[in-house]
Amino acid sequence: MAKDSCLARITAGVAVGGAVGGAVGAVYGTYEAVRYKVPGLMKIRYVGQTTLGSAAIFGLFLGAGSLIHCGKSY
Fold first, then answer.
1. pLDDT for the residue numbered 2
2. pTM for the full model?
3. Distance CA 43, CA 29 (A)
4. Is the Cβ–Cβ distance between 62 and 13 less than 8 Å?
5. Quick one: which of 27, 48, 30 has its CA closest to 38?
6. How confident is the model over 13-25, as pLDDT tens digits?
7. Which residues have C-beta within 8 Å of that of residue 38, sequence separation ≥ 6?
8. Cβ(51)–Cβ(25) under 8 Å?
């Protein structure tokens, strides 16, 4: 497989999107849990759900963007 292959670009896009989405989701989930006074251990669950959901969405969109740009050469 070539180093600059389409699959490698898509995989890198999904990985970067997941990392950025996870970081943003963790910050946003923590803020929302404190703001809405989520009780006790439910805060951990709320932050986890927000982190995973945000990572999945960001990863999906960045992977799709990488797929769209895969065939183009600049």
1. 56
2. 0.86
3. 9
4. yes
5. 30
6. 999 999 999 999 9
7. 32, 46
8. yes
Structure tokens at 72: 């183009």
Residues 39-53 pLDDT 10s = 999 999 999 999 999
Give the amino acid at 5.
Answer: S
CA torsion through residues 18, 21, 65, 12, sign: negative
- Buried b / exposed e over 24-60, threshold 16 CB at 10 Å, is ebbeebeeebeeeebeeeebeebbeebbbebbbebbe
Which is higher by pLDDT, 5 or 19?
Answer: 19
* Residue 52 in tokens: 């995973």
Q: What is the chain's mean pLDDT, rounded?
A: 92
Q: DSSP for 6-36?
A: HHHHHHHHHHHHHHHHHHHHHHHHHHHHHHT
Query: Encoding tokens for residue 25?
Result: 């989701």
Residue 69, helix vs strand vs coil: coil
